[in-house]
Design brief:
- This protein has 222 residues and is mainly beta.
- It is 0% helix and 52% strand.
- The chain is built from no helices and 19 strands.
- The strands form five sheets. The protein has a five-stranded mixed beta sheet, with no helix packed on it. Strands 2-1-3-4 form a four-stranded antiparallel beta sheet, with no helix packed on it. A four-stranded antiparallel beta sheet has the order 16-15-18-19, with no helix packed on it.
- The termini are far apart.
């Protein structure tokens, strides 16, 4: 049998094939008229044409803050999308978002959890679909606490302080022992030479994640 394919790309002569079931990669979106001339001999051939439409590709991408503190978090998700007319774009913010889904290209969302959160943006048109997923991170709020190692408290008394504060990022420490002396160690020891009651204060400061300054005073701790 004779097969004479013309794939309908304007302005070129190489969009042809003599195979019975050819494949062809089109240069871009558009409507193309495909022509097939076929027959058993050169004098016995017939022609058929058919229009095919190739849509432009769906492109989805978005930007947002990489991480925030869980306290009062508000993420701004900015979609960067393109595709055929009537393409539907849909967000998936997961079960912990202030909204779970949206068809807006840009959206503002907060979350009620901490840690890694997956956010997905999907574009759909007919049978074509394209998705992109990014992770954002929510830091948990830091906490402050401390205690003193138990023991006989007689002057001179060597007090060993034990930090029980927590943060996902680094912590700066400032201890005030209530007798005019301070320390920046995490777990300092301090000698109280004079009998009395001393209000001990711990101040912690985080400079990343959930940025905060917290204070805790234990009156008459020693």
């Amino acid at each position: 049998n004779i097969y004479e394919w013309d794939f309908g790309v304007p302005g070129i002569a190489t969009d042809v094939s003599s195979q019975s079931s050819p494949t062809y990669v089109y240069p871009g979106p558009g409507t193309y008229t495909v022509t097939l001339i076929s027959g058993s001999t050169a004098s016995c051939k017939d022609t058929i044409t058919q229009d095919i439409t190739l849509n432009e590709p769906i492109v989805v991408e978005f930007t947002s803050q990489d991480s925030l503190c869980v306290n009062g978090n508000v993420f701004n998700f900015d979609g960067n999308v393109s595709g055929p007319p009537n393409t539907v774009y849909e967000w998936d913010f997961g079960p912990n978002g202030s909204i779970n889904t949206s068809n807006n290209v840009d959206e503002t969302v907060s979350f009620n959890t901490t840690g890694n959160i997956e956010v997905t943006l999907t574009g759909t048109h007919n049978n074509c679909m394209e998705s992109v997923m990014h992770e954002v991170y929510l830091y948990a709020e830091p906490t402050i606490d401390f205690t003193i190692q138990s023991g006989l408290q007689c002057a001179p008394f060597v007090a060993q302080f034990i930090d029980q504060s927590w943060a996902e990022t680094g912590i700066n420490y400032l201890w005030d022992f209530g007798d005019g002396t301070t320390s920046v160690e995490q777990n300092p020891s301090h000698v109280f030479n004079t009998v009395g009651s001393y209000p001990v204060t711990l101040t912690i400061e985080t400079t990343a994640g959930c940025v905060a300054t917290l204070n805790l005073m234990e009156a008459d701790l020693v």
